[in-house]
From TrEMBL:
Protein name per UniProt: DNA repair protein RecO
Record function comment: Involved in DNA repair and RecF pathway recombination.
UniProt keyword annotations, A-Z: DNA damage, DNA recombination, DNA repair
Pfam families for this protein: RecO_C, RecO_N
Species in which this protein is naturally found: Variovorax rhizosphaerae
NCBIfam families tied to this protein: reco
Family assignment from sequence similarity: Belongs to the RecO family.
InterPro entries: DNA_rep/recomb_RecO_N, NA-bd_OB-fold, RecO, RecO_C
Domain DNA replication/recombination mediator RecO N-terminal: 10-81
Superkingdom of origin organism: Bacteria
Amino acid sequence: MKAATHRVAHEPAYVLHRYDWSESSLILEVFTRHHGRIALVAKGAKRPSSNFRPVLLPLQPLQLNFSGDTEIRTLKGAEWMGGHVMPTGESLLSGYYVNELMMRLLARDDAHEALFDAYAAVVQVLATNHGDAQAATQSSALRAFELLLLREIGLLPSLEVQTSTLAPLDPDARYSLAPEAGLREAEAGELAALRGVEWLALQRTLDDRAPFSATVHHVAGMEAGLGAALRTQLRMLLNYHCGVTTLRTRQMIRDLQGL
């Protein structure tokens, strides 16, 4: 007797990436709240008459219906949940950067509900016009998301102790995040290192009941030099675990800023 096909309905999700599967269909990489990152085939999605065409966009909150027990499931229905418009300009590129991180670092079929909530929050920030403070607000949101992503997938060490010795941090000493060694005392000349008091404060925000908003608020209040140092520390760690020197979307943003 044939086993029943597994069906999922009304699943909160975001499209991370899409690519052609045939003349009329797409393969979607989506991030779902309860099933993690999964692959779906959207049959006929490229046809002009398809109901999927205006819905399957990145950085938009969706509810999906899908079925199947194989590596690539079949999309049965998709509904846009509203809430915000598509980010534009540099905000859109920042959203693609977040999606590239997710594609490179998240294993399939591994649920991360807290990370899903943080992803939804950072996308909301990117889609909102913050006026003159927009760049600073979005930068703080990106740093918060990077920290939460690294912690959620087990790549961020405790920021309360030195990783190799478990010795407590000296609030006045300077420490760096090394990809293979974790948090360690900084060597002379490491300009991007942060003092122990800063790492300890970041750990407290990550442990907050609302870690995304708490971390955004804390990073936004950091002095410009400290914020830049944190960005450098996280970028080195992320690039190492992504296996690249520079992420493609980051290079695109850099090129556009150069123009």
